[in-house]
Each structure stands twice: as C-alpha cells, then as structure tokens.
C-alpha cells in the first residue's frame, strides 16, 4: 500500500479520478498505483508528482539501488526534499519516531512542535529566501533522548533554475556532541 500517496491526494482535496485524468492515465491504473499493486513509469510518476506537489522519487524510495540503501540504511543520515511551503515531497531514512509514509505532504510543525522542528523550518525558509546553501546544528527531543543533527540545506531548483523547494541532508552527531544545553 502507498498510504502516503492516498493521504497526500486527500490532503490536496483530489479524487482518484481527478489525479488520473490530470496524469493522462485511467482511474483503474491510478488505483493500482495508489494501492501498491502496480508501479508507475517514471513519466507517469512525474505527472502524478507534479499534480500532487511531491517528488517523483517518492514512488521509488523502496526501490533505490541496493548500494544506496546499504550505504544509508544504518547510517546517521536523513535526506529529504520539501516544497516552497516546507511540505515534505520525499524523505529517506528518518528517525524511527516518524513514519515516512505519513510524513510526505506534511510540514515539520505538523509532525512535531518543538525548538528543533521550528529551527529546522527557519533554516529551510532562510535557504529559500536567500537562494543559497546553509548549514546549522539543530537538536530535537525524541523518544530515545535529545538528538543533535548537523543539517545541510540547499535550494531545490527546477529545470529553469527556479527555486521550487529545499533539499536537506542531516547527520546525527549526537554521539559526538558533549552534553550541553542548547
């Protein structure tokens, strides 16, 4: 099941028929894509992604090359894309407190509200506003304690070099950070 896809579609107030029609596919095929029994071609994924405001790579998160998955699966790295409204359009390897299926289409402050999420959102907004790469250490209270991340953020641009969002790569540096008040 692609519950995340169904959730994003519903959050956008669209029916399966509306998405299918706009993506130039029939509703039955879209339904199969949404329930996970069929995978879209990249072109179809791109059309659906454009309609829903997500990254086409969201359809292939579980199908990335094995070396990529192996390199990141047990690493302290989180990689994500957000649109101009800071809604996740794709996320990989996030902390176990968060379900990637339910994160796509949501903002950080819709997933959790704390100093860390607010600082992360401010960093993303500044990257979009200034149009340049930035980085910052940000700490988040999570169920297994406070985790500090070194967050690299840069503008996400389209083929016309227009900023359409922000890309982040966050490395958990908790074990390398002395206990201190943030």
TrEMBL record:
SUPFAM superfamilies: lambda repressor-like DNA-binding domains, PYP-like sensor domain (PAS domain). InterPro entries: Cro/C1-type_HTH (IPR001387), Lambda_DNA-bd_dom_sf (IPR010982), PAS-like_dom_sf (IPR035965), PAS_4 (IPR013656), TransReg_Diox_bact_type (IPR050807). It comes from the Bacteria. It holds the Pfam family PAS_4. Residues 5-59 form the HTH cro/C1-type domain. Keywords: DNA-binding. This is Helix-turn-helix domain-containing protein.
């Amino acid at each position: 099941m692609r519950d995340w896809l169904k959730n994003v579609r519903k959050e956008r107030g669209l029916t399966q028929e509306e998405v299918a029609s706009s993506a130039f596919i029939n509703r039955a095929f879209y339904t199969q894509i949404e329930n996970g029994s069929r995978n879209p071609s990249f072109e179809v994924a791109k059309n659906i992604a454009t309609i829903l405001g997500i990254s086409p790579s969201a359809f292939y998160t579980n199908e990335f090359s094995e070396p990529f998955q192996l390199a990141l699966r047990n690493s302290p790295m989180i990689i994500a894309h957000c649109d101009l409204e800071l809604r996740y359009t794709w996320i990989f390897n996030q902390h176990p407190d968060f379900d990637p299926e339910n994160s796509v289409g949501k903002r950080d402050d819709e997933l959790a509200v704390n100093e860390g999420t607010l600082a992360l959102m401010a960093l993303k907004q500044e990257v979009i506003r200034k149009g340049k790469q930035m980085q910052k250490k940000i700490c988040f209270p999570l169920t297994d304690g406070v985790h500090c991340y070194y967050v690299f953020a840069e503008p996400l641009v389209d083929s016309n070099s227009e900023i359409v969002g922000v890309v982040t790569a966050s490395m958990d540096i908790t074990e390398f950070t002395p206990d201190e008040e943030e």
